[in-house]
Amino acid sequence: MTTTAPPPHRPGTRSARRSPVVRVARWSATHPWRALGLWLALVAGAMTLMALVPTQSMSDDDYGVGESGRAAEMIRDADLEQAPNEVVLVTAESGTLDRAAAEGAYASMRAAASSIAHVDAVGPPVWSEDGSAMLIPLVLEKGVDDLDATVEALQDTTADLADSHPELEIAQTGGESIGTQVDERVGEDLGSGESRSLPITFLIMIVAFGALIAAVIPVALAFSCVLTAMGLYAVVSALVPDSGSVASVILMIGMAVGVDYSLFYLKREREERRKGASTVDAIEIAAATSGRAVVVAGLAVIVAMSGLLLTRDTIFAGLAIGAMLVVAVAMVGSVTVLPALLGKLGRWVDRPRVPGLWRLNARIGRGGISKRLIGPVLARPKAALALSLGTLVALSAPALGMTLHAGTIDTLPQDIPAVATFQTVQEHFPAERPSLEIVARADSDGGATSAGLALESLAARAQSDGLASDASEVAVSEDGRTALLRLTATGAEGDDANEDAVAELRDTAVPDALGDIDGLTWAVGGDVAEAMDAQDAQRDALPLVVGFVLALTMLMMWVVFRNGAVALLTTGLNLLSVGAAFGVMTLVFQHTWAEGMLDFTSPGFLVDWVPLFCFVVLVGLSMDYHVFVMSRVREGMRRGLSTRLAVEYGVRETASVVTSAAAVMVSVFAVFATLSMLEMKQMGVGLSIAILVDATIVRLVLLPAALVLLDKRLGSLRRTAPAEELVPAA
């Protein structure tokens, strides 16, 4: 295959009208202390906010959607909400529970718990049918904003009780306990992710640059972006509360894009200095090329993440805002503080050098390996296109069998004490299973009398038809307008039979029981219905989100490259990368073969919000490499190279950067695949596989082959750049 040397530098070409990115970069490079001072002030201010303003977490009210959301609102308005409660489970290791010893433990627990603040009552002991377990109900006060101290005091009391009764197994569980311990585990996972991702990323940067200072800069800048975004989100959380995963997402996305953007910029600046440019000129050239690509890529990620806001789901909104904040901060940092550091350090950025790695980096940076890899692709583009397409379609095929389900108690780490205890409680006490709530509201005061009678008949029918295992007495509000029936599901949490029961109640049983009463509105809610409605809402929003993200990213690519073929190709490549990731996620998490490798128990499904979130993240992140490679291809075409040689030039000149950036992203995401929370595992596997596929099969095979075959449709890429896009030269 015929090749040419890289296009020569064009001396004297300087934009008379610099773009804003170039002007900001030049100011930062020529005023480094001011730029660095402003950045440090931003980081310090954000960290101060994080310390002073606690991040607001989602409350039960934030989860309501659909019919279950209406039911929850009716129950709150009527003041018929259940008080928060905890339970203490008493069993014996031998399986035979000594009744006298258990009663003594109950008496001790009742005496100790009654003196704890916000404990409203200690109910009578509840025995299992076979007498092998006893439950101590603890009713907490309603309307208390923060029960953490109360739950912690109860846990300490339970621990003391267990120590004083070694012959018994005593453990506490409940919604508050599970929530507290899950939050603690998320914090531990976050710290573990930080401690593992930072050294791995730093090691990759050392290999990529062969110099310590150059390796430190991207990692330090990315970590400062993460801290800044967390501080800013603490303020925003007052409007968009945290579901518990926002900090993990900020760390995961922030470390990935923060290092990538710095890597793109720093690599180009070093390249231009090697060609003879001064430090400031090299920074300008990097700003006009890589800096501009960073801004476009960052905006693409932000646009993609904004699609989650269309779901009108508080969980997605929090994740989207957190990711958008950290990407925006990383984008700003890469075009401001990075030029300031490079301007101040000058050639010292390449010191101290790691001798062997420095020489290896220089050799790889000249595209020796990528040239050999891309040669066969460009020589036989049709065969390369067919082979790569076949591979990606095969990887995507398992996604056709993807099963989605809301997270359940089974998707939480089973080694969390409160989770393990809750599972045991469900085995011994079926009445502690999920609830089904039917609420009816009349137009006038006292109008709920007829509804109450009808609900009592409905309770008997639901139990006889196998829709519920138990029913409480019908509760009526003080004004007599609202009646509430609580049923206990027949299956444990996550059982499909519970969802069938909700569907039967909504479609047939409740309308039959209440439909003839004038002036009555009703709704079916409860734990099972809430999960079903959340999943239905996501399913309904999916086409809107996908269409919005693909349309806007396609429009962005057309605006940047002024070529419809490039825009359509971008969308197709994004979908193939996402499909491959979804296929691997389905193979890994819906089956059991990878359980030992990743230390999880397969629930047989993917947590429902993970694929949609991964989709928007992957579309945004894949734009990073696409914009970076296509910018170099266009650069070669504008300098007179044929399409084939321009593609070779673009891939060869970006190969080391894309490889290093992909290695960073894959390593960061892979770290999250080792954490204990199943949602984090699924996201980590999906994102790491997608980036790996995108940086290898897509960028080295599929994209070059497609560009060569689209030769006649790429004419607009050869047009002369506007004045503000011209690359400044030394």
Structure characterization notes:
With 730 residues, the chain is an alpha+beta fold. The chain folds into 3 domains: 20-53 and 188-409 and 537-725, Multidrug efflux transporter AcrB transmembrane fold (Up-down Bundle), CATH 1.20.1640; 82-180, Alpha-Beta Plaits (2-Layer Sandwich), CATH 3.30.70; 423-532, 2-Layer Sandwich (Alpha-Beta Plaits). Helix content is 64%, strand content 8%. Strands 1, 2, 3, 4 and 5 form a 5-stranded antiparallel β-sheet that branches. A hairpin with a 5-residue loop joins strand 9 (475-476) and strand 10 (482-488). Helix 7 (212-236) runs antiparallel to helix 8, helix 14 crosses helix 19 (564-589) and helix 19 runs antiparallel to helix 21. The longest helix is centred in the first third of the chain and has 35 residues, at 175-209.
